[in-house]
């Protein structure tokens, strides 16, 4: 295989050279434990704090509002379980959406088993949560609203500022899972009126295994991890200085280059969407306008997503069908079902997510190979009428 086209940046990204270079000294040179008193370790401590300040600046937050975690999933778990624990005597109702990542949905299910009630708001055909529905779902015992900033499968960007205003007015805490958004669209915790926000380094060319949770000053959040007094006693464990420095460097780089890179990726994405949209019985999933710059997601009738991925892999194309964590399962994606796609169609999904190293040539290659593979699979499919060139079903 001569060529690799990596079109799965929503799953993970390559570490940027800037982040790698920033991280290297902390593995074997400036390796002091930030909690130690001697000056050798205090250098690591001050570099950790500089990283925190950098992350805060990229979100329009204060440094003391940023807590480093091990990943986006940890941040999501901490936000939901922490607020539930803190507020359980005030109320036990949580509002979220049907299209959240499993880090939110599975935590919500866990909380339901602990006696909390969760409202899973439906979305429209483009994956959009209606702010009016959030407002209507509020109850006197609602303690938390958690709605993702942008969806990882279909790229739809949610009306976060509108939901934030509703939450603030109602005096209810608002968390957003911004794992797919940070580093890709402008993020402003103050303008959005969010109280908690999750992010993950490896989605914007930072290191894997490194995340952060923004917790607005004044919001009380009990720890998820107990032990030492790191992260102001709220998240125990010797700090991952290399990870924090790498995450901050990658975020700074992504934020500085955001306008240009987002314009470049949106143009490539639109070309891809237009080209693959010409395949009969295909459709773009997600909001056609308010979507992440690099995300082009589709369904192709009469095709199995898994088979599509395997044949694309044989041509050097890395893509996914549904979210990375569920691509090993044969269940159709909960996101595609929530936007109203029938099971049969939801099975034929393809998510192409473009990023830093993708070029016009990559898009040309995708536009050449994806239609061929779709055609090949349809010719072998029992649900495809070859003579008529359409699915055997009428939906
Ligand atoms: N939330 C969303 C929207 C995601 O897309 C992901 C990862 O795909 C996560 C949370 C989990 O992030 P991590 O892999 O850092 O745990």
From TrEMBL:
Cofactors demanded by this protein: pyridoxal 5'-phosphate
InterPro entries reported in the protein's UniProt record: Aminotrans_V_dom, Aminotrans_V_PyrdxlP_BS, Cys_deSase_IscS, Cys_deSase_NifS_bac/arc, Cysteine_dSase, PyrdxlP-dep_Trfase, PyrdxlP-dep_Trfase_major, PyrdxlP-dep_Trfase_small
EC class: transferase
Origin: domain of life: Bacteria
Residues of the Aminotransferase class V domain: 5-366
Location(s) in or outside the cell: Cytoplasm
Coiled coil segments of this chain: none
Signal peptide positions on this chain: none
Binding site for [2Fe-2S] cluster: 325
Name the record gives this protein: Cysteine desulfurase IscS
Organism this protein belongs to: Lawsonibacter hominis
Gene: nifS
